[in-house]
Amino acid sequence: MTKKFKIQLLQFGFIGLSNAVVDIVSLNILLFIWPTDHRTTLILFNTIAYILTIINSYIWNTKYTFSHHANMDSKEILFFILQAAVALIISNLVFIGAVDVMKSQSILQLPTLLIQNIAKGLAMLLSSSASFLFMKFFVFKSNQTKQANR
To answer: What is the DSSP letter of 106?
Structure first.
């Protein structure tokens, strides 16, 4: 692993912590105001929280993690939106899947809000990992290639 990649991963991790706060707090505010077990509503709440997180992520990653590669043109923004959409699908599938699995098991009877937060944590871990890889190798790749050729 190159030093540059390690630094990007570390920066992405710190930004990921701020994203996690936005994601978890947003979801919990929605669940506090409108407690629910309904799958469609949970997906809606997760999607709202994720969109707020994506906005936070784009701002910080273009300023810091990938600042030398970001040019914020329409192509880059399109690729960022596409990677965010894929990561959102991963997030929603993992979130709902984990909620369903934890609710269906009979060994531990956990409170619903705890189940939802554990599921959200798993969803965040998998979707942010996918997001980093997409940004590193697709969204900001063309600019990295240009710089390497200079």
So the answer is: S
Which amino acid, 100? D
For the ranges 79-83, 110-114, 116-120, the lowest mean pLDDT is seen at 79-83
73: alpha, beta or left? (left if phi > 0; alpha if psi -120 to 50): beta
Predicted TM-score (pTM) of the model is 0.77
Cα–Cα distance, 44 to 139 (Å, whole number): 26
| Burial bucket for residue 124 (CB in 10 Å: 0-12, 13-18, 19+) | buried
Tokens encoding 150 = 């200079």
Yes or no: say if 94 and 122 are a contact pair by the CB < 8 Å rule. yes
DSSP 85-105: HHHHHHHHHHHHHHHHHHHH-
Cα separation, 81 vs 139, whole angstroms: 9
Indicate the SS3 state at residue 70. coil
pLDDT given for residue 3 in this prediction:
81
d(CA 63, CA 83): 18
In the block, tokens 């942010």 appear at 128
For residues 37 and 97, what is the distance between their CA atoms, to the nearest angstrom? 13
Domain ranges across the chain? 3-148
